[in-house]
Write a structure and sequence with these properties.
This protein has 10 helices and 9 strands. It is of the alpha/beta class. It has one domain: Aminopeptidase (3-Layer(aba) Sandwich).
Length: 271
Amino acid sequence: MHGNFSLIISAPHGGSILPSDIPNRADGCFDSILNSCIWTHTCKPKSSKCSVTTVEDYLSNEFAQNVAKELVKIYGLSPFLIIGQWSRKKVDFNREINEATLNHSEGIAGHRSYHNFILDAIAKVKQQFGRGLLLDIHGHSQGNYTMIGYLLTGSELNNDQLHFPTSIEEIIQSSCANNRKECLKGKISFGTIMEKNGLGIAYPSQNNPKPGKEVFYGGGYITQNYIKLINAIQTELPYEIRAGNQRYQYAQKYATAIYQFMTANNLLIKT
């Protein structure tokens, strides 16, 4: 989906298509000499394994599409939308290419295609608008809360270690140069704006700045890989928001939160 404003939405883990010419991603091979994983379908006998994750983020694709539709419906704004159609059992678009494909040629081609779409969207956003936001949508089953991933760990948030590099440094320099906390868990942070729009608990936010003992994912390959080019945020959404009976209403609220967040941080630039 080609956009008319400065937002890119990525949803890499909701696909269910199983291409027959790509083998399922099995465990990789641990090399004790190199102390690292060798990502291949042909491990040596008796070699230790490196596990891979293949679980689908159920209905995260549909949720991303619904959010895009609501942005068009409410504001007349079309984001650049990139959806992963293939199952993670075949290719994981949110891992580096070796782990993502176990070095299978067809899997590599699919992975490169997904990321070329992202790179093309980033280039268009930068050319047309100068700056923007890449929002990577995921789902989790750890509890009824959202994890906002800026590349800070749960431990760093719990200990107020906000000086570490994040995935939104350009936003911080523009909007919160004198107080990083304001952009990460203050009133103009994405978590706070999500909560104010009725999207449940979000870590970190003004009311819920620390995840405490809750499982927390701070961002994956997509968030890490493009931060030199664009601001990036990963949102890990609970089942209720992305797949429950009220998912269409939540998609509308999420779209509103995006609009308000981008407006508050002078990121909403359109043609």
